[in-house]
Design a protein that fits this description.
single chain, 534 residues, alpha/beta, 18 strands
Length: 534
Amino acid sequence: MNSVDEPTILVVDDDPAIRRMFVRALERRGFEVMEADTGQTALETIDRHDIDVVLLDDGLPDLSGTTVLARLRAVPDTATLPVLLVTGHSDPDRRVSGLEAGADDFIAKPVDLDELVARVQSHLRGRDAWRSHVEESLHERARLAGSIAGIGAGGSPSHIATEVASMLVRLPGVSAATVLSMAPGGSARFLAGLDHNGVAVRQPGQPVEPRAAAELAQVLAGGAGFLDGESGCDLVGETPGAAVVAGLTGASGTTSAALALGTDPGRDRTEDLRGILSSAIDLAPVVERVLMPSLESGDTAAALAELQSVITEVAFHPVYQPIVDLTSGEVRGYEALTRFADGARPDLRFAEAIRVGLGIELELATLHAAVSEASRLAPGRYLSVNVSAELLTRHDLTSVVRLAGERPLVLEVTEHERVDDYELVREAVANLGPGVRMSVDDAGSGWASLRHVLALRPHFVKVDRGWISAIHTDPARQALLLGIAGFAESFGGHVVAEGIETADELDTLRAMGINLGQGYHLGRPAPIGQHVDG
């Protein structure tokens, strides 16, 4: 509100007689009054001064009243500014359009001045009440943030989460609060969950239903949002209200935990959702600071033990996907891939190993298994294995080459990984002997794009499946692939099209002169005993 005691009213009308009449009536009741005769002048006045209520004529000469309203509502500082639209039209459609644009009230001409003043006073009382509510909410949020920040370090994740939930459930309109941890594979489990009476609605360690976990991860991709229906109930207990969720980011920069706040079904849902969402977003960074160190320490220790067990117990096995000559249909080679006994996604398992410092150990173990078992493949086919630049340049792979024997070996360097010294990578491959060649995997999808290919000059360039999918419908992608093929041929390389899944894609690639490919249409990854020529 204005710095002086009297509220300030802005009267916007191009008719000077009407403006004077409104000004006199408002000043007699003790209001400060400012005037504007155009929409643009009104916007500039509102920008420069503290205005409490606007009386806005809908028939201004430059900007319509609805245009002025739309501009005010688009700016946070004026989104809730009370605006009374003064209209000389009785057409209901005009009033509807005004309300849709954000008008708080209508006053019809000719104006009853007592009614005018009464309506202004009514909206001022409403705005004062709203400001008081906002200030109270902000103070409560600040107090709550201070309490959460004061939670002592050193407790278990579930202990800290229980204390956090017991505080969050005090927020107005909140019926339950849960804290969850998010696993890289998309699953989630509860760390704590309480209702407003302090009764547990979820037990520590209890898994989240897969459907709800998937929907939660989808919402958290945007940082925060709402979940209702069955999934909302799964997160916060059996309540007809919705769940407001906000993500917590760990040291890795990924969302590894979340808050879920159930709304009180006895209150206005729209008002509650917005207010509770704002609180959750504001409080999430405070919860991160007290919870994440404990959670990440416990998760790292558990992941380390699990991965060490996977390596020592050889809880994985290789599978092989054929790489086919697209002209003759003959199998030219196989790409070795890894599958884990517990069904974990390979990309997530390898990423987790890197996070806890076992990336090289897991990579070496799976590499030796793949090359060793490949001895049972039919002779004459080359074996392609995935290697990181770090493994290739910092570890001696001579034993892997000896294990491959007479079989040609192709080392696939993924394009998703940054390479700081391309010359060192080329030298490392050359030092392994003439039977070892290099491939760049996922070309076109990763960190350095074709710079990777240009710097490494590999024997094979594997084009990412994103460029191959439905290529028969996209002449632009066909032209791009031909360009990559010509680029590879310029230094003696060959393109391998990944992800061929339909006959149409295969026919198009053949017509384009692409000679090598792999994908489900040509053969799925399978254990060695399931390959007919193995």
